[in-house]
Amino acid sequence: MNRILIKIFATLFVAFIGGLSGYGQIVSPRDEVLDVDSIQDEFEKGPYFGLYKDNYFIFGPPVGMKPTAHNTNVKFQISVAQRLTKSVLPFGSYLFLFYTQKCFWNVLENSFPMTDLNFNPGLGFTKPLFVKNRFIGKVSLIFEHESNGKAEKASRSWNRVSLSTNILIDPTTMIYAKMWIPWVDGENNRDLLDYYGLYQVGISYMPLSKRFQSAIFVTKRRGLNLNYNTVLEFSYKLFNNENQYLFVQYYNGYGEGLLDYNKFRSQLRIGFVIKPQFFSDY
Q1: Are 55 and 78 in contact (CB under 8 A)?
Q2: Cα–Cα dist 180/160, whole Å
Q3: Angle formed at CA 62 by CA 73 and CA 210, multiple of 5 degrees
Q4: Please, which residues have CB within 8 angstroms of residue 253's CB and are 6 or more apart in sequence?
Q5: Residue 197 needs a FRET pair 20 to 30 A away by CA distance; which of 35, 51, 227, 255 works?
Q6: Tens-digit pLDDT profile for the chain (282 aa)?
């Protein structure tokens, strides 16, 4: 298992330095030829501030259990990125400040308590990837911190250096990979990696019409057995000129939130999502 992780990490690192020059004919997310200059112009002339991961608001019950006011809740995520450099840096990269906040909100209970808030700031580099002068995705190297802002026994926190990539293998299909070198500093979550794991892979599909998208992501928990946290997502755009989608998310596994990271969840939620312009990070 360690050898596999080392090979994955080495492959991603080579991609960050060299730009995956060995891939074949791959096109852009809009089925257009976007060359190096046009993508760099879009990075440098575009807004400094924008969306990072999906921004969503969803609500729903557990699967396989009787729904109650305690286990049927709202989950929402706010995620943004701020580009800190105007001009391209060495290796064709750009420096970004990232911030994601995920919240679990028990709206059916008295006083509507927000039971778990996860704060996830990060600072790192993103490099657009090109094959034969065509834009095919990106690779990012980020230092991240995540904690829940609570005190004493409810406190949870950890840090990681993550390396991730998004690669278009054709105009409709994208593959994802992310792995991290962790540093668990929380006194009450020393076994966090047993549930959060060390790497994640996924694939998403969006037809050329851009009306809907489906995706699946799996995170390998620590250990040699086949233990995965799984996320299935489906989104449907109601109006072509808007960036809002109906959204369905199914989560199965551990580590959905920091507070109860070691408790199993099988949850189905429905709501809406706002997506970044090209593709989402996870």
Answers
A1: yes
A2: 6
A3: 80
A4: 219, 221, 228, 229, 230, 264, 265
A5: 51
A6: 444 444 444 444 444 444 333 333 333 444 454 556 666 666 666 667 889 999 999 999 999 999 999 999 999 999 999 999 877 788 888 999 999 999 999 999 999 999 999 999 999 999 988 888 788 899 999 999 999 999 899 999 999 999 999 999 988 999 999 999 999 998 999 999 999 999 999 999 999 888 899 999 999 998 888 899 999 999 999 888 888 999 999 999 999 999 999 999 999 999 999 998 767 788
